[in-house]
Automatic annotation (TrEMBL):
Lineage, broadest ranks: Eukaryota, Fungi, Dikarya, Ascomycota, Pezizomycotina
Residues noted as binding ATP in the record, renumbered to the chain: 92-99
Organism: Aspergillus sclerotioniger CBS 115572
Record keywords: ATP-binding, Hydrolase, Microtubule, Motor protein, Nucleotide-binding
GO terms (BP aspect): microtubule-based movement
InterPro entries: Kinesin-like_fam, Kinesin_motor_CS, Kinesin_motor_dom, Kinesin_motor_dom_sf, P-loop_NTPase
Entry similarity comment: Belongs to the TRAFAC class myosin-kinesin ATPase superfamily. Kinesin family.
Protein name (record): Kinesin-like protein
Length: 452
């Protein structure tokens, strides 16, 4: 993980908590500019807790979304405008303010934009200035928005009618999220990736974001009866029409290759089956009555190779657009992950809190959420211990986030996790567990010896 930061954000007391006691908490800044946190419970028989120097910054309940954005996201935008990637994760129990931080609830007030929308607003200000110098419509810079959620080992495309998608690892070792297979005319087979909505203005981006948010799955949890029941992933990538068209061309060339490759395989099998016979003993030997038509096989393989070349040429064209662009920002990306609420804890010290009744399906979903979060935690632990094998394949969530954790040889990756927590003493266990999780991540992303 490159430059992984951990930020804590205390939300205001909810209306139902205004008469509750607040958690007694303290922060201590260390010489390495990291912060340790300590919690003192008000309930008897509950131990206090203190973290290591694992946190980068702490925001109080009085800090609005703009304050958080200016301190956490805005400093990374110059790197995005150089073509790099910045990733932001929000983690906390249900109702702690994750969605408010990432998505926002007021889409007309710039001071309360979620980080995703605020980032889009700032990027468009920069892109509009760059576009003024280029009159070619195909080279005008915009933002490509991808928005999907992960739930029960399945992905759903929120910008394509919540289309059911599949998470798979390709032959190249990369994780791909693709929709249903489409059988087209002439035997062509097309499998489209997650839809990218091209937005050429901030208003378009806001409209598409609202469309996707309307399709997010919600349900009751152990904390909150309107909890998000999925991990939502939002990607904002700087694109041009030429780049998007080139990527579409790759998909088209791949669909053309499928029937040609299938025909080559069928001919090979057909000729080889004709070329053997079975003896009474069950052995297969060359048929004396049929000569394999190698020329037919070679012709089919040659046609397959030709279409494979078309695919490679299309892929090369995408790379060429990326590397030859006069704008370094092309391909720069912001990734926001609104992790589903952590449902793993049960606060025995607060039995008076009413718990929404969950259906059997919602209970199963809660268990899957916890499995995903545990997998994410183990990936971070493996990175912290510099293990040679990191269990990215342990869940679809960690498979999808692999590239965001690892970066690449040519693209730098900057990551941060925002822990959203409640100051209510009734939520002491939930808050402590969230901070423990953040403590692990913070230690993994910093020099542990220097933190002491």
């Amino acid at each position: 993980m490159n430059q992984f930061r951990v930020i804590t954000r205390w939300r205001p007391l909810a209306s139902s908590d205004v008469h509750q006691t607040e958690i007694n908490r303290n922060c201590e800044e260390h010489p390495n500019s990291r912060i340790s946190m300590s919690l003192v419970p008000s309930a008897p028989n509950t131990r206090p807790w203190k973290s290591e120097a694992a946190f980068t910054q702490v925001f109080e309940a009085r800090d609005n979304n703009k304050t958080v954005f200016d301190a956490v996201v805005a400093p990374t935008l110059p790197e995005v405008l150089k073509g790099h990637c910045s990733n932001f994760f929000a983690y906390g129990h249900s109702g702690s303010g994750k969605s408010h931080t990432i998505m926002g609830y007021d889409f007309n007030n710039p001071h309360e934009f979620g980080m995703c929308l605020a980032a889009g607003h700032h990027l468009f200000e920069k892109l509009e200035a760059l576009n003024e110098a280029d009159s070619d419509a195909a080279l005008q810079l915009g933002i490509g928005l991808r928005m999907y959620e992960l739930r029960n080992k399945t992905a759903f495309d929120l910008l394509n009618g919540r289309c059911n998608c599949h998470v798979r690892e390709g032959y190249d070792g990369q994780t791909h999220i693709r929709g249903e297979t489409e059988v087209l005319e002439n035997g062509k087979v097309r499998v489209r990736p997650i839809v990218t909505k091209a937005c050429w203005s901030f208003d378009e981006l806001r409209r598409e974001l609202l469309t996707g948010l309307a399709l997010r799955a919600t349900g009751s949890s152990t904390i909150h009866d309107q909890s998000s029941r999925t991990h939502a992933v939002l990607e904002l990538e700087i694109v041009t029409r030429a780049l998007l068209d080139a990527r579409d061309a790759v998909i088209e060339r791949q669909s053309e290759l499928v029937p040609v490759a299938k025909r080559a395989t069928d001919i090979y099998l057909e000729e080889n089956l004709k070329g053997v016979v079975q003896t009474p003993d069950g052995e297969y030997i060359p048929s004396p009555d049929y000569q394999i038509d190698q020329a037919r096989i070679d012709a089919a393989e040659a046609q397959k190779a030709e279409f494979e070349t078309f695919v490679k040429e299309a892929e090369h064209h995408v790379e060429e657009i990326m590397t030859s662009s006069q704008h370094r920002c092309l391909g720069g990306k912001l990734v926001f992950v609104d992790l589903a609420g952590s449902e793993y804890y049960h606060d025995k010290a607060a039995p008076s809190i009413p718990r929404p009744k969950q259906t059997a399906q919602e209970q199963q979903e809660g268990r899957q959420i916890n499995t995903d979060l545990l997998s994410l935690k183990e990936v971070i632990r493996a990175k912290a211990h510099k293990q040679t094998r990191i269990p990215f394949r342990s869940s679809p969530l960690t498979m999808v986030l692999r590239a965001h954790f690892m970066g690449s040889r040519t693209v730098k990756s900057h990551s941060a996790m925002i822990l959203t927590v409640s100051p209510s003493a009734e939520q002491f266990a939930a808050t402590m567990n969230t901070l423990k999780y953040g403590n692990l991540i913070g230690v993994a992303g910093s020099d542990k010896k220097a933190a002491r």
